[in-house]
Amino acid sequence: MWHDGNGWQIRVTHHKTNLRTFSAQLHTPGAFTDVTPVHLERSDQFQVSRDRHDITFLFRNFGAIDGLSFFTHCAPSINFAYQSDGRTSPPDNIVIGHNSSHPENDPFTIHR
Q1: Structural domain count of the chain
Q2: CB contact at 8 A, 70 and 24
Q3: For residues 4-24, b (16+ Cβ closer than 10 Å) or e, as one string?
């Protein structure tokens, strides 16, 4: 995941061609806007809550790339909670930014 001039970018993949599921819950006190799917297949799904404070997704991945792009409005922070195959993702499997940082925990919060 990273943030650039095109907003926030989240991508998931893995090194094999077997089925893995990736899911997440994102929350902000601000609003998520312009949420756009990236390379999703028919079985992948995401939702933005009516108040735009939450995004949830479930991607069924066979080794390709699935993801979302989005912007935020008046969002001082975003809380991220990731799961892989129904279990909390290990922080070492979560890569943040061009320096490939990892959060200390999952879930975690990024303050802007």
Answers
A1: 1
A2: no
A3: eeebbebbbebeeeeebebbb
CATH number at residue 71: 2.60.40
Cα 67 to Cα 1, 6, 14, 45, 104: the distances in Å are 9, 14, 13, 10, 22
CB 6 within 8 A of CB 69: yes
Q: Which domain holds residue 107?
A: 2-111
- Pairing mode, strands 31-38 and 20-27: unpaired
Please tell me the pTM assigned to this model. Answer: 0.94
CA 48 to each of CA 15, 29, 34, 79, 86: distance values in angstroms, whole numbers, following the listed order: 29, 14, 10, 14, 20
For the segment 5-35, what is each residue's pLDDT rounded down to a tens digit?
Answer: 999 999 999 888 788 999 999 999 999 999 9
Neighbouring-strand partners of residue 3: 8
